[in-house]
Amino acid sequence: MNRREALRLLAAASVLPVAAPNLLALRKARALLAATEAPRTLSPHQFATVKTIAEMILPKTETPGAADVGATEFIDLILTEWYGDDERSVFLKGVDEVDVRSQALFGKTFVESPTPQQSEILIELGEKMVEETQARGEGMHHSRRAQQSSHRSFYPMLRNLTLTAYYTSEAGATQELQFDMIPGRFDGCVQIAPAPAPKEGSSQQ
Fold first, then answer.
1. What burial class does residue 36 get, using C-beta atoms within 10 Å of its C-beta: 0-12 exposed, 13-18 middle, 19+ buried?
2. Which residues, other chains included, contact 196 with Cβ-Cβ below 8 Å and sequence gap of 6+?
3. Could you tell me if 1 and 32 are in contact, meaning their C-beta atoms sit under 8 angstroms apart?
4. Where are the domains of the chain?
5. If you write DSSP's letter for every residue of the chain in order, what string do you get?
């Protein structure tokens, strides 16, 4: 599997449900991308904004959070090497608009705002995402191209990339999904009792 194939798997997973049967291939692809350099698409401030939002989506509890598995580095990688210009532009514009909204409401950037104010903005983004999803689902007459544009808004893109980054990481796959490479129990050396001898006079088939 080459680097581009690895990116194809990871990017495709960002718009598909991540299920256990796909995790082996995705984790193998992720391993090929482990040696990622510093962010190349997100500016330092954008990186901090995305990292903060990603950690709010998947915070650290008794299991690792989004920041612990390098979700923001993953997002920057997909933005840089897989997303087209249009998708990248939508994402970066969305990141900047988070700050515009935060400045208008609180007079501070998103990362400078306290957690309750950050949560308020994320609630707005989530409500907008739900409204867009419902609007797309109202008519079954929508073209296939229109349906495929479901992730062309910033927050759904960020949310899906964050989830993909998390659940294709070792921590997300093993601790959250409890994915097991060899499920169940394997006993390699089990003694098997000999079969009982046939009773006298019984027929054997």
1. middle
2. none
3. yes
4. 3-176
5. --HHHHHHHHHHHTTS---HHHHHHHHHHHHHT-S--S-SSS-HHHHHHHHHHHHHHS--SSS--TGGGTHHHHHHHHHHHTS-HHHHHHHHHHHHHHHHHHHHHHSS-TTTS-HHHHHHHHHHHHHHHHHHHHHHHS-TT--HHHHHGGG-SHHHHHHHHHHHHHHTSHHIIIIIS---SS-S---SS---PPPPPPPTT----
Q: What is the pLDDT of residues 130-174, one digit of tens each?
A: 888 777 766 544 444 444 444 468 999 999 899 888 877 776 656
| pTM score, whole prediction | 0.69
